[in-house]
Amino acid sequence: MSSVISSPLFGVFLCVVTFAAGVWINRKVKSPVANPLLIAIALTVILLKVFHIPLESFQKGGDIVSLFLAPATVALALSVYKQVAILKKYFLPIVLGCLAGAITSMVSAFLLCKAFSLDEKLTASMLPKSVTTPIALEISEQLGGVASITVAAVIFTGILGAVLAPLLIRVFRVADPVEQGVAIGACSHAIGTSKAVEIGEIQGAMSGISLSVSGILTVLLSLFLQ
Amino acid sequence: MGILLQIGIFFGICLVGEMIAAVLPLPIPASIISMILMFILLCTKVLHPKHIEQKSNFLLENMAFFFIPAGVGIVEYYDSIKGVILPLLVVCVITTVLTFGAAALTVRAAIRVQKRAVAHKDCTQKKEGIQ
Are A104 and B76 in contact (CB < 8 Å)? Predict the structure, then answer.
């Protein structure tokens, strides 16, 4: 049994099975909260706990699945290329939206951490939470944050964005696909973008642009923080 | 084009992206650099969409799937955030909502201003034409 669990195939297989279950439940429940990714993560965590399977064994296969994250981000380039007319037409609004998102994210994280009287280390870990993990880690490190808290906050924010996106679109009455895409990418980076891709082609492309522009802008903004 | 070749193109671009990221002074992730690289290759017609379409569609359609291990990985960090988990969750939720709103409303306002500017330009151009 232990040889089965320690094989990388185990992790890959578990991801596929739990995601399939997530998609199936999502179709049955038809609520955005029943997000397939969220269900798959929860199921995997529960299964690992119940059967006392160490996380390291799962991650042997998990690493193989994660390997496809970079190519998946690259695939967004084709969506962006197909929507290049929209990108040209609304270039300035898109960049301004990303800038507003990046500033709002950092300022609100800072103020809220102060409001909850969290210490400086935690605040520094939370500041870059709306951008993709490698950028967030670098900024957090420079500001004296804790890497593990930053990673957890970034991933949680991403999942949150993916789950809440349909709801937020209704709450803020966002009808325009460009607005939708930019907002999703700005608040929840690549994980949110995976949801934007499902919502529509334009949304996916705009979210892809937004996650890159917001990320780069956050790097530039963080240079002023030191 | 063969699916194997498409996979090769994707991994090749990612590899070049990682090389560029390693020498770049700013912490821009390799995946974003690779994405920009792919975009340039498409714009300069070095690559045609049909060269990468199949693989692209596969990756985009299953994008959420690739995040499962990252999400499961949070469990590993549970011990380090146990004491402050509630305020951290609240901070995450509120900032996500605010960031979404700020980005969406800014895009909306900017598009409106831009349209008005364009309309104004068209209008003055027409007037000039009449005169």
Answer: no
3-state helix, strand, coil in chain A (%, to 5): 80, 0, 20
Residue B46 located in a structural domain: yes
Q: Which domain holds residue B17?
A: 1-61
Question: By the 8 A CB rule, do B111 and A93 touch?
Answer: yes
pTM recorded for the entire structure: 0.90
Split into its structural domains, chain B has a count of: 2
Chain segment A179-194, per-residue pLDDT in tens: 999 999 999 999 999 9
CB contact under 8 A, B14 and A184: no
Residues B31 and B86 placed together within one structural domain of the fold: no
Write the ipTM.
Answer: 0.92
Whether residue B70 is contained in a domain is answered as no
Does residue B131 register a pLDDT over 70?
A: no
Say yes or no: A186 contacts chain B, CB-CB below 8 A.
yes
Q: What is the per-residue pLDDT for B124? A: 76
| Separation of alpha carbons B13 and B5, rounded Å | 12
Would the CB atoms of A101 and B102 count as touching at under 8 Å? yes
Give contacts of A 62-81 with B, CB under 8 A: 62-63, 65-66, 68-81
Assign B122 a pLDDT band (cuts: 50, 70, 90).
confident
- On whether the CB atoms of residues B103 and A98 are closer than 8 A, the answer is yes
Type of residue at A116: F
Q: B66 in a domain, yes or no?
A: no
Q: Are residues B8 and B49 in the same domain?
A: yes
